[in-house]
UniProtKB/TrEMBL annotation:
Organism taxonomic ancestry: Bacteria, Pseudomonadati, Pseudomonadota, Alphaproteobacteria, Hyphomicrobiales
Superkingdom: Bacteria
Protein name per Swiss-Prot or TrEMBL: DUF1272 domain-containing protein
Organism: Ancylobacter tetraedralis
Length: 82
């Protein structure tokens, strides 16, 4: 089951579980759509995998299986991508 991490690893922007602005790689590294497009070029800086839109968990399922509250932030993300 996806963790649905709460923030962009690159800019620390909040990404609530219902947003359509979150993207992930196969390891669930999580970024906002802006960083994914403008900074990372659609490629995860951690694993080199493709970044795709994170699915939205239905509200009823979210109540039973809540999103993660653990934030992951790498301020060097922008430098690593360049």
């Amino acid at each position: 089951m996806l963790e649905l991490r709460p923030n962009c690893e690159c800019c620390d922007r909040d990404l609530p579980p219902e947003t359509r602005e979150a993207v992930i790689c196969t390891f669930e590294c999580t970024f906002c759509a802006d960083c994914a497009r403008e900074v990372l070029g659609g490629i995860c800086p951690n694993c080199g995998g493709e970044l795709v839109r994170r699915p939205i968990r239905p509200t009823a399922a979210l109540a039973r299986n809540p999103a993660s509250t653990t934030r992951v932030f790498n301020p060097d993300c922008r430098r690593a991508a360049g």
